Amino acid sequence: MAVAKNRQNKRSNALVITEALLVSYIGYITSFILVQLGLITEPNVENLTINIFLITLAVLLCSLSVGLYEAKLRETFRGIIRRIFVSLGLSYFIVEILTGTVFSSLDMHSYFLPTAISLNIIALVFFRYFTNRLGLLGLGRVRLVVLGAGERASIIEKRMRRDVDRLGFELLGFVPVPGDNREDGIKNEKIIHVKVDDSLRNFLVENDIEEIVIACDQRRGTLPIEILFDCRLRGIEVTDLLDFMERETGQIAVNLMYPSWVIYSNGFHSQNYLRDALDYTVNSILALFVLFFTWPFMLITALLIYLDDGRRTKTSVFYKQERVGHNGKLFKIIKFRSMRPDAEKDGAKWASKNDSRVTRIGNFIRKYRIDELPQLINVFKGEMSFIGPRPERPEFVEQLVKEVPYYNQRHNVKPGLAGWAQLNYPYGASVEDSMEKLKFDLYYVKHQSLLLDILILIRTVEVVLFGKGR
């Protein structure tokens, strides 16, 4: 364990030194830019050096106070961003107070501090993203073992086969536990043949294990409670398989969920009361903003649909369809018509890839999501949000509720024009696909926040610009 502790200290020290250099450099760049723009005069070198040192020291201390240098920080990237904002906000007020009282002789220009703090927020967010994502400085990579080698544990083997799926951790192997369904369990991963007794404790210590993932098929009478208790006291993280998959994949393994996990886990309700209170206002402003830029494309699209087959068939360029919304309430969704007028003459059908019912214009507007633009009307009416699970048809919901566990929980939030599931699983045309998309929808329901909404909006722009829509 001493080796593991030493390695953790080296990670933290490397991070502190690197971020200190980054913050100092950003301070210098800030001064250079402001001078070049003529906003401030060339500062005294000695004063500038002390100012940069003061900002750097404040940022490091505040980052330390909010846990950003904690060696075993288990936080989502959104959580890290929140901590960076808090840290830099505190730093701003501390430096502002100090330079206005104790160090008033430093003559820090009023433009310098807010600009330096703003640029540092951007720089630190990008820096943390790449260090965590790529495992730089030894950050984000945790040495772990999985307790269990049966059917439940096999989801890691199935869902996280690629190296890119394991950037955040180093998996040493799977420890079989009595009661595991080995027939449907781990096939190609390393099996650690160690008894679930003191031998397991010794193995964990000797290999500097930092996290244990509990993934055994049967827990009652099989979990080594005393060993796990001892591990927690030693600082080793003990994580449930569901929490591990949620953290590493951005989805919730619906087929492995059990009621007690839902009851005791965090999330599944919005904790941002300001966001809830301003929900309709923010969505309406966004809708107006999008409408301002897209109305010419909407007008051209309507004209093309009319000329393509609307004039001949006397069918509207718009398509209205009943969907299931917030808390199961039905509403009429509005889209540009992308299918033939007789597309559902034989009843409701799942849309499919290369669907023969789609018109020539329909293929194009679906690819670039132009067919979704009339749903801005649904946003103005308060029936939809910009971000949320895509609303499904009541005929399909009735079927999916029976076949897919926890499907109804996706209706706990308003449906949206864009969603987490659409970014991560872009096509769904069957019950099986709906199960996969539900894993991402429930992740959104559990973690809904303004920051996640912004992330989805940014990534949706990429989908539209590069034609990655269906």
From TrEMBL:
Entry keywords, A to Z: Membrane, Transferase, Transmembrane, Transmembrane helix
PANTHER family (alphabetical): COLANIC BIOSYNTHESIS UDP-GLUCOSE LIPID CARRIER TRANSFERASE, UNDECAPRENYL-PHOSPHATE N-ACETYLGALACTOSAMINYL 1-PHOSPHATE TRANSFERASE-RELATED
GO terms under cellular component: membrane
InterPro entries the UniProt entry points to: Bact_transf, EPS_sugar_tfrase, Sugar_tfrase_EpsB_2
Domain Bacterial sugar transferase: 282-465
Organism: Alteromonas lipolytica
GO molecular function, one term: phosphotransferase activity, for other substituted phosphate groups
Family classification: Belongs to the bacterial sugar transferase family.
Protein's cellular compartments: Membrane
Transmembrane spans: 20-40, 52-71, 83-105, 111-131, 285-307
Keyword Transmembrane: yes
Membrane topology: Multi-pass membrane protein
Primary location class: membrane
Domain of life: Bacteria
One Pfam family matching this protein: Bac_transf
Name under which the protein is recorded: Sugar transferase
